[in-house]
Amino acid sequence: MGGGVKGNLEALLVMFGKQPSKPKRITEEAKVLHLVKKEELKNLTKAERAEFRRDLDEIKQGVHSNKWRNRRWLSILTINLLFTLSFWIDIQLFEGSIIASRVFGFHMADVYSALQVVFAYKIVFINLIIGTVTVIIIWLIFGGRAFCSWVCPYHLLADIAEKIHLKLVAKKLVKDHPFHRGVRSVFWIVFALLAFILGYALFNSINPVGMISRALIYGPSLALIWVFLLFLFEVFYSRRAWCRYVCPMGLTYGIIGALSPLQISYHLADCHHEAACNAVCEVPHVLDCVKKGRADKVVMDIGTDCTLCGACVDVCPTQSLRFEIKGLSLIS
Amino acid sequence: MSKLPKSPRQEASRRRFLRTVGLFFGVVGTSLATLLPVIAKLVPSRLRPPGAIDEPDFLASCIKCGQCVQVCPVEAIKLADLDDAMGVGVPYIEARVQACDFSCDAVQCVLACPTGSLSHTIVKKEEVRMGLARVAKPDACLASKGLGFKGLARGEHFKGLLRYAKIDRWNPIPVREHPYDLKLCDLCVRQCPIENAISLQSLDNDGKHKLPVIHEACVGCGVCEMICPVEPSVIVIDERKKWGEA
Q: If I label B20, which of A2, A15, A138, A145 is the partner at 20 to 30 A Cα–Cα?
């Protein structure tokens, strides 16, 4: 159980933009399981095959549980509206915005935004360190990019854009234009360097997360035009573009998540290899292991770029994907 | 080599690479474009919240969270928008609309700032240096004409708040709920929250004509600019100006 150092390094590299590759070594148990499944698939009756296909079609048409989606939408709305409400009725429990805040008096600061400020200002301010460390600890516990799925206000908007995009793709009205995922790592470095060179946290000027958060709390602003343009870009041109290829905030939380015990685990034994999970995943490269013959262990950790959104858990017909705390099963 | 026909796979990969280059320059270009007006100083400088450090450092260190906005009892602090062209989300104060009147007593915005953009070395309102008040249009000043003032300083629609210690020590009230009846207009001096920052000086021997004079104690909070009943305001704040500077 658990990724081991090599597995984690590979997961990190894949997150930084590397193409997932076939595992070099596969454990004996996994090898046996792969063989057994191959035989089983060969011996499927026609009726069984048809049933498989029908199941998959239904899943792809949206016939599946939305339990985790509903939970995370509720989480995003609750957390963001608590900030709004706190300001409106002036109870000062959630001060600030998603970028930096004081929650019940605890300093919090988004890690990449704080990094930019340190690079730009070149002086490290104690409250900012406290806030950043607090946030790092929170996401070490709750799984890194879980921030994206469970807190980030842009995520909800991007979910809607993705839904519309997929409908349009199904009707063959638009086509997804993927980018090279490695460009997100380049953005991460370039915006950090620009902050240092310019003495100005440039990324915040185009960061839709801060814009939406501030708009929700302090009232709508013209900056939302930029957010709307991103929305249109994701609907008509490239699926989930900001979260997949740009956002350095997300990448930062991904790096933190590499050390987190909370993750989604993959159980090879029951998997039908239908790839329904792949189809709904925001970051499908983390699910490379669900392809036939790819899993190198019987139970695997999903890559650290995973946002723990639970979409795959919702669609998997065999419960082969589960939320887990390092081996401790959350749902069986 | 180049004459070899490319496989569809290579072609798709080439296109994806070009698209990615486009995305990179698109995103970085847009972010740089938002910075141009700041660098070029296309927009006039703005009054910053109390305790703001030097402008370049201020812009560098502000994380744009808005905690200063939230703690201000009179909501004097606003966040810059896209069209303000000086950094989306950076706080500023428009004194004529709502000045900082130190209703909070303890410079709350400074305490709230998580990055030190508002310097924590400031603990009292008297230590603040946002700018300096300046009598911009002395001829328009009511006092200089020997006139009094009766009524609402800024009219019945003005939304600005001010703390009137005699009415409510703790809570600021709308300026429009506080009518005045003054023989000689001294609103800027009367409402100044800082001691010895501004006074009226006689222009002639009989003391009928007077003009406000700014002193070194002025912190540039902008209450005088907000309360001045003349339109446009006789007194304005010069942002970041220090005493003795030309």
A: A145
